[in-house]
Each structure stands twice: as C-alpha cells, then as structure tokens.
DNA sequence: TATATCGGTATACTTTGGTATAGTGGTTAC
DNA sequence: GTAACCACTATACCAAAGTATACCGATATA
C-alpha cells in the first residue's frame, strides 16, 4: 500500500463485499436460503424477530446484487419463492473464510482475554 | 444448514468477523497500517476526513481485537505508535478473498445492470 | 508573547439503520 | 360472516453510528 490508487484498490472492493453482507438480517436470510427455496412467510417464520419490512428490504437488496432469485407464480393468491441464485454460491468461498477466521478469533479472544459477551443473537430456526 | 445449531455455527462466526471490520474507518486504518507503523497524527493525516474522535475509537477497537499494537514511548511529549500486530496479518487471507470477490462483483454489476453509483469514498492518502 | 505540535477527550448534533404497529386486497376454511 | 393466510407496504418512532467543534496540558518554534 504505497499510493492512493493501490489503497483504493484495497478499500473499495472490500467495502463493496462488506456492504453486501451488511445489516442485521442478510446473514440469517442467506443461511435460511442455503437450505433451499423458501416462500416469504416461510422465511419470516424461520428467522425469529424479523419484521416483514426488514425481510422485504433485505431480500430486495440481495436480489439487486443477484445473490437471490425471486420467482412469482401466477396462483391465487400469488406464490413468491426466494432461492439462492447460482451467482449467490460464488459467495460461499468468502463466507467460509470469514467463518473460519471468525470461529478461530472467538476462541482466541475467549481464552486470552476477559470473555467477550456473546450477545443474544437472533438466529435462524429450521 | 438443517438445524438451529448448524445455523448459529454459520451466522455467529461470520458476524464476528464482519463486526471486526465494521464501521466506516476500520478498512482505511488497516490499509494505512499495512504500509508500516504510524503515529496518531500521521494516521490522521493519511486518512482524509477522519476525525480524531473516530480515529481514536476505531484504533481502540482494533487494539482490543489484537489486530493492532499500540506502543507508547516515554518522550516529551509522548510518542504513540500504531502498527499491525502479528495476529493482524492473519486477516490478510480473508481480506484478500473479500477483495477479489468485491472486485469481480463490481465488474459484474457494472456491466450487467444499470451502473451502480461509485460513491465518493474517503480513501487513504499515502 | 503568540502559535503550533503531540495524542487525544467532551459535548452536542445529525444521519442512518432498525423497530413497532397497522393496514392492503384478494382467497380459503369454519 | 368472520377469521386467517398470503406477500407485502406505510407511517411513525427509536437507537446506534458518525460528525462538528472545541478543548486539554505540556513543549517547541518564531
């Protein structure tokens, strides 16, 4: 990192990646969809405490980024299905790196330091 | 992802990793420190628009997570140096995965879709 | 004597992210 | 007929994150 260009080349793409995963509910939603396709209400039920407003908003962002595919079936009433888009699977490698590092880090902090508070996380029920 | 435990094992460590990199300034700070050790004011100068309040706050969080080492030299006035801690380098692999994915994603979104606005990012000057 | 540097902190403010609550229009089950 | 389900949206509110501005005590420079 020895000049502005090189530095932007570091910050900008990582920021992009972070932004896509940002927000309280993106990870639980992706987690739930990795199991398989789900309808809106199914997602709402499997992600405790999420409001329809947030679910809708976060799904839209994931869809815009082509990670999630939304399909509307012309039934009455309409059926809407969400699933991981093929492109969505490209995230898995990054996610697994983050998961490994995160797990390792939690252990490290727990043992070396005063324990960090494991906050009450809302976690997908399946 | 077929049960609650497995799902927490997905969400929690990734959340941990995300949290550590979260906030507007962590990435620019890490970028600046990857160049080598820097004093407080040097960091402040090399990261445009950061306030001392935020710089101090984010450095403290990075230090707590053992990614950054802070050394105080007993001069008058005191000299304080920040540098990547050895453990900090363990992040590089994750960061590089994110960087690659992010760069690839930006290209993809730019070409397939209506261009995404490249916001005016504050970027480290070196 | 006045000004700048060092490494920050204090206070107040604004902006963004997330929550709470209610409601839409149409359909099916009791 | 009324209650529930579906996939959401609208409005109002609240809390967290970030900004702006000023200041600290000690020292060095003009």
From TrEMBL, chains A, B:
Signal peptide positions on this chain: none
GO molecular function, one term: DNA binding
Keyword DNA-binding carried by entry: yes
InterPro entries: HTH_HxlR, WH-like_DNA-bd_sf, WH_DNA-bd_sf
UniProt xrefs under PANTHER family: TRANSCRIPTIONAL REGULATOR, TRANSCRIPTIONAL REGULATOR, MARR FAMILY
Keywords in alphabetical order: DNA-binding, Transcription, Transcription regulation
Naturally occurring in which organism (per UniProt): Runella aurantiaca
The protein, known as: Transcriptional regulator
């Amino acid at each position: 990192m020895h000049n502005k260009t090189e530095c932007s080349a570091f910050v900008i793409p990582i920021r992009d990646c972070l932004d896509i995963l940002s927000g309280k509910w993106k990870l639980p939603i992706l987690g739930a969809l990795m199991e398989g396709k789900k309808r809106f209400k199914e997602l709402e039920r499997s992600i405790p405490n999420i409001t329809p407003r947030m679910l809708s908003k976060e799904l839209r962002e994931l869809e815009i980024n082509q990670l999630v595919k939304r399909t509307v079936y012309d039934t009455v009433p309409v059926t809407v299905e969400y699933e991981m888009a093929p492109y969505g699977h490209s995230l898995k490698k990054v996610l697994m790196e983050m998961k490994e590092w995160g797990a390792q880090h939690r252990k490290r902090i727990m043992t070396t330091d005063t324990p960090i508070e494991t906050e009450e996380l809302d976690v997908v029920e399946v």
